[in-house]
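Section 3.1: Structural characterization of target chains.
Under the original work plan, the team committed to producing a structural model for every single-chain target entering the pipeline before any wet-lab resources were allocated. The record below documents one such target. The sequence was received from the expression subgroup and is listed exactly as submitted; it comprises 154 residues.
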Amino acid sequence: MEINDLVSPDGVFANLRVTSKKQAIQELARRAADISGEPERVVFDVLMERERLGTTGVGNGIAIPHGKLEKVDRLYGMFARLEAPIDFQAIDDQPVDLIFLLLAPETAGADHLKALARVSRLLRDTQTCEKLRGTNTADGLYAILTESMESRAA
Protein backbone atom coordinates (compact mmCIF):
# COMPACT_ATOMS: atom_id res chain seq x y z
CA MET A 1 0.00 0.00 0.00
CA GLU A 2 1.40 3.34 -1.04
CA ILE A 3 0.44 6.81 0.18
CA ASN A 4 -1.11 7.67 -3.20
CA ASP A 5 -3.53 4.77 -2.59
CA LEU A 6 -4.78 6.75 0.42
CA VAL A 7 -4.58 10.41 -0.48
CA SER A 8 -5.28 12.32 -3.69
CA PRO A 9 -4.10 15.82 -4.58
CA ASP A 10 -7.47 17.30 -3.53
CA GLY A 11 -6.93 15.84 -0.04
CA VAL A 12 -3.72 17.78 0.67
CA PHE A 13 -3.79 21.21 2.30
CA ALA A 14 -0.97 23.69 2.86
CA ASN A 15 -1.02 26.40 5.51
CA LEU A 16 -4.25 25.27 7.17
CA ARG A 17 -5.19 27.98 9.65
CA VAL A 18 -6.52 26.54 12.92
CA THR A 19 -5.88 27.42 16.55
CA SER A 20 -6.85 24.27 18.48
CA LYS A 21 -7.06 20.51 18.24
CA LYS A 22 -10.87 20.61 18.10
CA GLN A 23 -10.85 23.26 15.36
CA ALA A 24 -8.29 21.24 13.36
CA ILE A 25 -10.41 18.11 13.58
CA GLN A 26 -13.53 20.09 12.74
CA GLU A 27 -11.94 21.65 9.65
CA LEU A 28 -10.49 18.34 8.48
CA ALA A 29 -13.85 16.62 9.07
CA ARG A 30 -15.52 19.26 6.88
CA ARG A 31 -13.02 18.64 4.09
CA ALA A 32 -13.15 14.85 4.57
CA ALA A 33 -16.93 14.98 4.18
CA ASP A 34 -16.46 16.47 0.71
CA ILE A 35 -14.02 13.75 -0.29
CA SER A 36 -15.68 10.72 1.35
CA GLY A 37 -19.34 11.64 0.91
CA GLU A 38 -19.98 11.11 4.62
CA PRO A 39 -21.72 13.84 6.64
CA GLU A 40 -19.30 16.24 8.32
CA ARG A 41 -20.83 15.62 11.76
CA VAL A 42 -20.43 11.84 11.44
CA VAL A 43 -16.75 12.22 10.51
CA PHE A 44 -16.14 14.72 13.31
CA ASP A 45 -17.85 12.52 15.93
CA VAL A 46 -15.84 9.42 14.93
CA LEU A 47 -12.56 11.36 15.08
CA MET A 48 -13.36 12.95 18.44
CA GLU A 49 -14.48 9.61 19.85
CA ARG A 50 -11.07 8.18 18.91
CA GLU A 51 -9.29 11.17 20.52
CA ARG A 52 -11.15 10.51 23.78
CA LEU A 53 -9.53 7.05 23.87
CA GLY A 54 -6.10 8.66 23.69
CA THR A 55 -4.38 11.30 21.66
CA THR A 56 -3.40 10.63 18.07
CA GLY A 57 -0.62 13.19 18.48
CA VAL A 58 2.24 10.73 18.01
CA GLY A 59 5.11 13.11 18.73
CA ASN A 60 7.62 15.18 16.76
CA GLY A 61 4.91 17.61 15.64
CA ILE A 62 2.81 14.89 14.00
CA ALA A 63 -0.79 13.76 14.53
CA ILE A 64 -2.57 10.90 12.78
CA PRO A 65 -6.26 11.21 13.67
CA HIS A 66 -8.21 8.24 12.37
CA GLY A 67 -11.52 6.45 12.60
CA LYS A 68 -13.78 3.88 11.05
CA LEU A 69 -17.02 4.79 9.33
CA GLU A 70 -19.86 2.43 8.54
CA LYS A 71 -20.66 3.73 5.07
CA VAL A 72 -17.30 4.49 3.48
CA ASP A 73 -16.28 1.96 0.85
CA ARG A 74 -12.50 2.42 0.94
CA LEU A 75 -9.67 4.04 2.87
CA TYR A 76 -9.46 7.84 2.64
CA GLY A 77 -6.47 9.89 3.65
CA MET A 78 -5.92 13.61 3.95
CA PHE A 79 -2.85 15.61 4.84
CA ALA A 80 -2.56 19.11 6.24
CA ARG A 81 0.44 21.24 7.07
CA LEU A 82 -0.73 23.80 9.58
CA GLU A 83 0.08 27.47 9.26
CA ALA A 84 1.18 27.46 12.90
CA PRO A 85 1.68 24.57 15.34
CA ILE A 86 -1.13 23.82 17.80
CA ASP A 87 -1.47 21.97 21.08
CA PHE A 88 -2.74 18.49 20.22
CA GLN A 89 -2.06 16.89 23.62
CA ALA A 90 0.65 14.87 21.82
CA ILE A 91 2.47 12.13 23.69
CA ASP A 92 5.65 14.24 23.80
CA ASP A 93 3.75 17.45 24.75
CA GLN A 94 5.11 19.17 21.62
CA PRO A 95 2.82 21.20 19.35
CA VAL A 96 1.62 19.61 16.10
CA ASP A 97 1.98 21.10 12.62
CA LEU A 98 1.64 18.01 10.39
CA ILE A 99 -1.63 16.07 10.38
CA PHE A 100 -2.46 12.96 8.38
CA LEU A 101 -6.14 12.02 8.69
CA LEU A 102 -7.22 8.48 7.91
CA LEU A 103 -10.79 7.19 7.49
CA ALA A 104 -11.53 3.52 6.96
CA PRO A 105 -14.57 1.31 6.45
CA GLU A 106 -15.69 -0.46 9.64
CA THR A 107 -14.81 -3.77 7.96
CA ALA A 108 -11.23 -2.72 7.10
CA GLY A 109 -9.45 -4.29 10.08
CA ALA A 110 -6.06 -5.29 8.62
CA ASP A 111 -6.11 -2.68 5.85
CA HIS A 112 -6.73 0.09 8.39
CA LEU A 113 -3.76 -1.08 10.46
CA LYS A 114 -1.55 -1.39 7.37
CA ALA A 115 -2.49 2.14 6.32
CA LEU A 116 -1.73 3.51 9.80
CA ALA A 117 1.61 1.73 9.78
CA ARG A 118 2.43 3.08 6.30
CA VAL A 119 1.58 6.66 7.28
CA SER A 120 3.52 6.31 10.53
CA ARG A 121 6.58 4.97 8.70
CA LEU A 122 6.46 7.87 6.23
CA LEU A 123 6.16 10.52 8.94
CA ARG A 124 8.87 8.99 11.14
CA ASP A 125 11.36 9.94 8.43
CA THR A 126 12.88 13.23 9.63
CA GLN A 127 14.01 14.28 6.13
CA THR A 128 10.49 13.84 4.79
CA CYS A 129 9.06 15.92 7.65
CA GLU A 130 11.66 18.65 7.07
CA LYS A 131 10.66 18.78 3.39
CA LEU A 132 6.95 18.89 4.31
CA ARG A 133 7.56 21.73 6.77
CA GLY A 134 9.49 23.67 4.13
CA THR A 135 6.82 23.41 1.43
CA ASN A 136 4.06 25.98 1.05
CA THR A 137 1.92 24.49 -1.72
CA ALA A 138 -0.50 21.56 -1.73
CA ASP A 139 1.07 20.26 -4.97
CA GLY A 140 4.51 20.32 -3.36
CA LEU A 141 3.25 18.52 -0.27
CA TYR A 142 1.54 15.86 -2.39
CA ALA A 143 4.74 15.29 -4.38
CA ILE A 144 6.75 14.78 -1.18
CA LEU A 145 4.12 12.47 0.34
CA THR A 146 3.95 10.28 -2.74
CA GLU A 147 7.67 9.96 -3.55
CA SER A 148 8.46 6.27 -3.71
CA MET A 149 10.32 4.74 -0.79
CA GLU A 150 13.06 3.75 -3.25
CA SER A 151 13.80 7.35 -4.13
CA ARG A 152 14.00 8.24 -0.42
CA ALA A 153 16.49 5.45 0.19
CA ALA A 154 18.78 6.61 -2.61
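Residues 21-36 form the longest helix (16 residues).
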